[in-house]
Structure formats: structure tokens, C-alpha cells
């Protein structure tokens, strides 16, 4: 479908008279030098192009909301991880750390959530009779893996939507470009006379405007998706490392051999 749209756009542009395409290029250059009136382009655009541009602007708004929210989430996650690791490795008693994690007046996330899940399961199994140290350790590890998966899913939330916006926006803009050129050619045919520069160049500018909006939406979304994906991977490695280190501590307490 994408290949068909690209081929159609190329065919339509080649079919336009040379003076028209040259005029459109000159008009775009003049607009760049003197400033483009985007509201005027929108007001004179055809209904399909207006709908497509509005969809793109809605996608841009959604993507920026996601970007700002995820930036805050990752900043908070990094700060909380640093703070908890400082308390954990300062030699604080595990029981006191667990009591602080289970305080109902505060919510836990990240490393503290993984610690809380593992130590809670460890204490629960330790109160049972007939369970050896290996069973305690395996139960705590399962609980930490579950919490780890939950925390990574929380960090990845809405990233898929950001990727979809970034990957589809250029093609949605391309559809608007094709519609704009089709409308321009239709007006040329219905005019019954050779179209002049003043009547054709705005239509081509309108068509190219849709593609520009698509790129404007896609570039920040793709950049942010790649950036946040890298940060998710780094935090996931940090979670795994802590879970392994905490497992080693529990292993020494239970006296389980490797």
C-alpha cells in the first residue's frame, strides 16, 4: 500500500506541467524567505487534507503528552533507585527496610518493590514448617521475578503507542499529499483552460504541507521512543542485578549452597 502511494505521488508530480512544478518550487522558496502563513494554507485546503492534518496534530499532541509523562517517570524511577540502593547498601537492617517498604502511607516502586516482594515471600515461607532453605530461596526469587516483570511493564507503558505514531505519521502525511495533488489536478481539468501559477501553486503547497506535518509529528516520536527504550533496558539490567545480589544475601542467610 505504501509503495502504491509513493508511486502514485511520483506519477502525479511528473504529470504536472513543467511551469506549474517550477512555480510551486518558486512559491515554496518565496514562502520560506518571507514566512509561511500556515493558517491560510489550512483554510484553503480541501476537506480530506484538513482531516488528515487534524489527525496528525492530534497524534502530535498525544505523543508529546507521552514524552513528558515518560520523562518524569524515568526521572523519578532513577531517583528512587539511587535512594533505595544507598539505604540498602548502607548496612541497614533488612527488617527495617521491609517495614519502611510496607508502610501504607507511601507507595513503592522499582528496586524497593522488588525487595519488598522477595522479602515478604521469604518471611511468609519461613513461618511455615517443613520447608528447607532452598525452598525459601526459590520462593523469594519467584516473587522478585514477578515484581521485576511488573516494574518493567510499568516503564514500557505507552511506548508502543509512541512507536506507532512515529512510524505511521509520515505515511498519513503522504496520503494528505496525494489528496492535495489529486484535488489540484481535478481543478485544472475542470477549469477548461490552462491553469495559471496563482491557481495551481497553492494546491501543491497544501499537498506538501501535509507531508511536512507528518514528518514534524514523526521525528520527535521516533527519537523519544528510541531514547526511552534504551532507558528501559538500563533500568531492567539494574533491577536484575539487584535481584541477583539480594538473592545472594538470602542464600547466605539460609545456608543454601550453590
Describe the model:
With 258 residues, this protein is mainly alpha-helical. It has one domain. 85% of the residues lie in helices and 0% in strands. It has nine helices and no strands. Part of the Tol-Pal system, which plays a role in outer membrane invagination during cell division and is important for maintaining outer membrane integrity. It holds the Pfam family MotA_ExbB. Keywords: Cell cycle, Cell division, Cell inner membrane, Cell membrane, Membrane, Transmembrane, Transmembrane helix.
Task: Note the main attributes of this structure.
258 residues; mainly alpha
| Content-based structural category | mainly alpha
| Weakly predicted, low-confidence segments | 1-34
The oligomeric status of these chains comes to: single chain
Q: Which percent range fits the helix content? A: over 70%
Counting structural domains, the number is: 1
Put simply, the count of helices is 9
Domain MotA/TolQ/ExbB proton channel: 112-240
Function: Part of the Tol-Pal system, which plays a role in outer membrane invagination during cell division and is important for maintaining outer membrane integrity.
Membrane topology: Multi-pass membrane protein
Protein name: Tol-Pal system protein TolQ
Amino acid at each position: 500500500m505504501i509503495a502504491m502511494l509513493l508511486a502514485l505521488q511520483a506519477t502525479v508530480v511528473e504529470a504536472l506541467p513543467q511551469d506549474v512544478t517550477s512555480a510551486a518550487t518558486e512559491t515554496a522558496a518565496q514562502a520560506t524567505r518571507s514566512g509561511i502563513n500556515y493558517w491560510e494554507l489550512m483554510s484553503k485546503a480541501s476537506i480530506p487534507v484538513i482531516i488528515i492534518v487534524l489527525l496528525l496534530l492530534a497524534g502530535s499532541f498525544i505523543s508529546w503528552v507521552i514524552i513528558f509523562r515518560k520523562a518524569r517517570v524515568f526521572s523519578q524511577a532513577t531517583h528512587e533507585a539511587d535512594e533505595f540502593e544507598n539505604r540498602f547498601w548502607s548496612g541497614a537492617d533488612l527488617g527495617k527496610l521491609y517495614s519502611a517498604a510496607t508502610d501504607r502511607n507511601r507507595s513503592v516502586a522499582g528496586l524497593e518493590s522488588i525487595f519488598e516482594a522477595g522479602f515478604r515471600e521469604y518471611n511468609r515461607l519461613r513461618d511455615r514448617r517443613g520447608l528447607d532453605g532452598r525452598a525459601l530461596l526459590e520462593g523469594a526469587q519467584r516473587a522478585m521475578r514477578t515484581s521485576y516483570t511488573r516494574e518493567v511493564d510499568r516503564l514500557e507503558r505507552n511506548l508502543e503507542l509512541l512507536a506507532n505514531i512515529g512510524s505511521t505519521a509520515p505515511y498519513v502525511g503522504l496520503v494528505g499529499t496525494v489528496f492535495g495533488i489529486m484535488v489540484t489536478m481535478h481543478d485544472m481539468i475542470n477549469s477548461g483552460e490552462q491553469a495559471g501559477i496563482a491557481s495551481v501553486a497553492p494546491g501543491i503547497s497544501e499537498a506538501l504541507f501535509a507531508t511536512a506535518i507528518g514528518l514534524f509529528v514523526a521525528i520527535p516520536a521516533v527519537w523519544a521512543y528510541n531514547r526511552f527504550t534504551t532507558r528501559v533496558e538500563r533500568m531492567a539490567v539494574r533491577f536484575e542485578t539487584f535481584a541477583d545480589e539480594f538473592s545472594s544475601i538470602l542464600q547466605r542467610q539460609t545456608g543454601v549452597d550453590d
